[in-house]
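Pilot study result, target chain (219 residues):
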Amino acid sequence: DYVYICQNETVYGTRYTHLPETGDIPLVSDVSSMFLSEPVDVSKYGLIYGGVQKNVGPAGVVIVIVRDDLIREDVLPFTPTIMRYKTQADAGSLSNTPPAYGIYVCGLVFKWLKEQGGLEAIQKRNQEKAALLYGYLDQSKLFSGTAQKEFRSLMNVPFVTGDADLDAKFIAEAKTRGLESLKGHRSVGGMRASIYNAMPREGVEALVAFMEEFEKNNA
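Predicted structure:
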């Protein structure tokens, strides 16, 4: 009926750099962790959805872009009325009380994105930030990235030293320098730097500078 992908995966720091060819089968994509980080050709999808909590606004809002011909009456009979796309489309997304404050904050972010030059400018900024961090990882003798180069995420950069105790030391010392939330997902360990739209280049530069210092002291 459809092909589903998670276009950017946050735990392993991987992404689809090219969309799969699905022919006449609709492509459905979860873009929660990369939405508005780069331009998107929506015509290639049947449906795009994403929680806004990574790049757009506070948790509790989901954005859906769905092709008109997929908004249909013939859904599975047990589908709750409120969960039917036609219900939302017919009501202009107001079939129930919306999370007004969250939507308001999203609107402020949309304006900010336009002020930065739009999604093309944001994409360039994100590519530069990722290149800075990956560039250091690729030449480091202590740290190494864990994602295959051709599938590296621009949003989430996991890396390790190869020693769990040294990883823990790095995370602890980084925190004392104001570098927060670098602990990797509990299922894989190591470290992970999430460099979403709101993270300025200066933040990535500060991380790389600390990594260089830590490597010098611990290699």
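One observation from the pilot: The two ends are 52 Å apart (CA to CA). A full batch analysis is planned for the follow-on phase.
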